[in-house]
Amino acid sequence: MSTPIINNPPRLQHQARLLLDHIEREGLKGGDRLESERELAKILGISRPSLREAVQILQVQGRLVVKHGIGIFVLDEAEGEKLRDSLKAAQHRIEELFQMREILEAPAVEWAAERRTEEQLEEMKAAARALNDVIAESPIDFDKVRKLDMEFHLTIVRSAQNHFLNQTLGTLQEIMFNSMDNTLKLPGRIDASEHEHGVILEAIERRDPIAARLMIIQHIHNARDAWFKYLRKQND
User: Fold this and answer.
1) Alpha-carbon distance 81 to 98, whole Å?
2) Residues 230 and 123 occupy one common structural domain
3) Which domain holds residue 192?
4) Peptide linkage before 139 cis (omega within 30 of 0)
5) What phi and psi, each to the nearest 5 degrees, are found at residue 140?
6) How far apart are CA 83 and CA 58, in angstroms?
7) Domain match, 174 and 67 both
8) The CA-based dihedral angle spanning residues 190, 188, 75, 42, taken in that order and rounded to the nearest 10 degrees
């Protein structure tokens, strides 16, 4: 566990270092489970939200893995290195997937703003609420977050009332789901994404197709930039 921490704001670096130091003091190895969130926060002398940030940092670095309902585990160094290598190799493919997502989702949200019914708007809002509820849980189940995030986007696409686009984007979302880790694990990204979803929904609700289109493009760009920022830091 002696690998330097990837560059993050000083506060986050400090929190992650406290957690790494604890793992080293306890002599924990790959597969070992850490203490409960409550106990671990008390040991480190930090709040539980701060602990969750530290866990997220180390999770995206391939040092920890969170198993929902079970606990936080140290990830085997060989598995962590394998994960980082696979992320590097996937960079070009992921860039193309983000490009295709922009091409498909931009007109989808524009049409949704023009064509959606009140019932479809309520479905979108319900999908957003379900996602936000899971985000508010502790610890966050990122697998569930990924599924609900995908469902939120597909609910918007369905309201565009274009069956071919719905099928195509659904397939693309599944490919992205199986091809890359969750960008929402990246520090700060989950809150930004939640805000962006709200702006997109507001534009659709007031039937503003241009605003909806611009926001979904920005949303996709932000997710892409967060992902590649993470990959670049892995290569440092």
Assistant:
1) 25
2) yes
3) 90-235
4) yes
5) -75, 130
6) 13
7) no
8) -110
List the structure tokens of 180: 């890359």
Closest CA to 63 of 51, 78, 80: 80
Domain shared by 194 and 101, yes or no: yes
The amino acid that residue 212 corresponds to is A
pLDDT confidence band for 85 (50 / 70 / 90): low
| 115-171 per-position pLDDT tens digit | 999 999 999 999 999 999 998 888 888 888 888 988 999 899 889 888 778 778 777
Name the residue with tokens 């702006």: 199
Residues 38, 145: one domain?
A: no
Alpha-carbon Rg for the chain in angstroms? 19
In terms of Cβ atoms closer than 10 Å to its own Cβ (0-12, 13-18, 19+), residue 152 is buried
Please report, as a single letter, which amino acid is at residue 116.
R
Return the number of other C-beta atoms located less than 10 Å from residue 214's C-beta: 17
Q: Which of 105, 96, 94 is nearest to 182 (CA)?
A: 94
